[in-house]
Amino acid sequence: VSRDWSSDVCSSDLQQTFNVFVGGTRLIVAMSMDRMLPDAWGRVSRRFRGSPVNAIIFLLVGGELLAVLFLFAPDVETYALSTALAATIYQTLTLLAAAVFAYRARDLYEASPIARYQFRGVPWVTICGAWGVLVGVVLIWRYLTDPGLGLRPLPGETLYGFLGMLAVYVVAFVWFWVMRARNRARGIDVDLNFATLPPE
Predict the structure, then answer these.
(1) How far apart are CA 156 and CA 164, in angstroms?
(2) What DSSP line would sit under 124-180, residue for residue?
């Protein structure tokens, strides 16, 4: 049995590749500000108009090394099929946070300019966040049930995409708690980072 990789899937993968690269630099800068990564990784360069040069170089080199790995070990690529799903999961969780923001952090919400935008007493941020969650759940369901998207295995195949995504989440989970403990030992309470909204 062979997969039918449609042009829609290929164009989606191409878009996701560039989207992940651009978004990755933002994540590295944010994680370095939260003390989850070394400060140097998120340093912003004045010479290059405020660009996070170190984060860009890190992702560029990492991407090239991964491309070489795919070239010489093409089977490894099957473990990366969950990239788009992983992105959809964290985007859906972010939208969920937006949906409950006005209720979970009422003081912050009421102090923000967005508090004046409501529809029949319901905050627009809640309405838009809930809609985004609904769309995200539909997309996640499609990834889990449609073999044409490359994640659900065909008969006789292994859950490579799931294994790849699971590995990413496990590594990230362990990394967070290790860095949290390390910072606490240095007298830095990183939990305070999550008590307020990020700068953006």
Answers:
(1) 18
(2) HHHHHHHHHHHHHHHHHHHHHH-GGGTSSPPTT---HHHHHHHHHHHHHHHHHHHHH
Q: How far apart are CA 71 and CA 79, in angstroms?
A: 14
The answer to whether the CB of 162 falls within 8 A of the CB of 6 is: no
Confidence of residue 148 (pLDDT cuts 50, 70, 90): low
Neighbours of 33 (CB within 10 A): 14
Q: Which residue, 173, 146, 151, is CA-closest to 162?
A: 151
3-state SS class at 186: coil
The residue with tokens 């473990």 is 79
- Distance between the two ends of the chain, CA-based, in angstroms? 47
Alpha-carbon torsion angle 33, 16, 125, 141, nearest 10: -120
Q: Is the pLDDT of residue 8 over 50?
A: no
Split at pLDDT 50, 70, 90, the class of 5 is very low
- Report pLDDT digits (tens) over 104-143: 888 888 888 888 888 888 899 999 999 999 999 998 888 8
